[in-house]
Structures are given as C-alpha cells and as structure tokens.
Amino acid sequence: IGAAKLVVVVAIFLLTFYVISQVFEIKMDANLGHIFAHLSLKFCYFLLTATKPPRYKCGISKACPEKHFAFKMASGAANVVGPKICVEDNVLMSGVKNNVGRGINVALVNGKTGETIDTKFFDMWGGDVAPFIEFLKSIQDGTIVLMGTYDDGATKLNEEARKLIAELGSTSITNLGFRDNWVFCGGKGIKTKSPFEQHIKNNKDTNKYEGWPEVVEMEGCIPQKQD
Prior knowledge:
- By secondary structure, this protein is α+β, with helices and mostly antiparallel strands.
- The chain folds into 2 domains: 1-50; 57-223, no CATH class.
- Helix content is 27%, strand content 25%.
- It is built from 4 helices and 9 strands.
- The strands form 2 sheets. A 5-stranded antiparallel beta sheet has the order 5-4-6-7-8, with helices on one face. Strands 3-2-1-9 form a 4-stranded antiparallel beta sheet, with no helix packed on it.
- Helix 3 (129-138) packs parallel to helix 4 (159-166).
- The longest helix is centred in the first third of the chain and has 22 residues, at 2-23.
- The chain is globular.
- The mean pLDDT is 87.
C-alpha cells in the first residue's frame, strides 16, 4: 500500500508541475516539455514495476523456508479440465502436458532431491483398481505422493486401495465418494497424518457444475526428507 501511495504522489507532483508550467507560460521549449512528460510516464512505470510483488515457485502466496519444496495443485473441473500438479516450479501433470486422465492422478517426487519419479493416472470409473493397488504398493519409502481427482475418482476404489492411501497420510480417503473433488499430498513412510489435503463432496444442492462440485486447490511447503 505504501509503495502504491508513493507512485501516486510522485505522478501527481510531476503532472502538476507540467500543467502549471503550461498555464503560467513558464518558458519551456516544446521539445523539452514533451521530453519531460515522456520521462514522467517512464518514471511512473518504473516505480510500478519496481514495486511489483515477487513471484514464488508454482505461484504460491509466499516463499517456502529452506529445505522445503513448494507445491501447488488443483483437482479437475467436472469432466472438462484436468487436474494440475506443480512442485518446485515444475508442472508435473496438467491438461496442457496431456498426461492427466479420468480417475486419480498421481505424481511421485523424491523426498530428498525434489526430482520427479513418476506420473500416472488410474481410471476409477471404467478401469480396474488392481493396477492402482500394485502401483501404491511399489512406492518406496521417502517418496512424496501427490494425488488429485478428475471426473470420478472413487467408484472402483476398494478397501485395500483406500487403506494404502491412508497409510500415506490421508484422512479423507475413507470418505471419498462418487465425483467428489479431492487433492492430497502425503508420503510413503509418513508417521503422522498429512496436513495437506482438501476434499469437497459431490452434492447436487451445492455443486458449482452440474453433477460436480467446484475445483479444490491447495498449496504449501513440503519438508525435505533428511537422512
């Protein structure tokens, strides 16, 4: 707010001085007047850009502390726009990258280095839950796991799959239902429940889209795994 006020004050001062010089016919060469007006505009633009708020990794609202990975993610929008997962300013999954699909979308990240290990999606409406279960069992300790739903991520989920996801730190997976929107960030070998989880129920009375709830978004800073 202070920087914006400064810009306004300086702009008013410069423009006022220029107007006064014209009204009272203060001797000023025409070219010099144009140069002065041009420089005034450039100076105001400089102040505005110089005070532009900084951009943080993945577009999150504040910088992460040292030894933390920045992330931001969003569930799908109905069955039209796919989910998006970003870690350390790298978009791991999105519709633009053409690597998302109906069901549960999963990105695996190395908990020490922040490097991407794998990205996959599993159709929980028309697909088979068995490959998803095998995938969950194969995740190595120390891996960061990010998940987001698209269209429907729950119909084919069984008790075994839900239990494996709960072991990654999820608390909402037991209640995930047909066409609910859900995003989650946990880890293999986590000792506590993850603080990174958002869940919106599919409810015809509150849905933003016909048959689907609104998009759910989440951002945060994941602690780097220490030896």
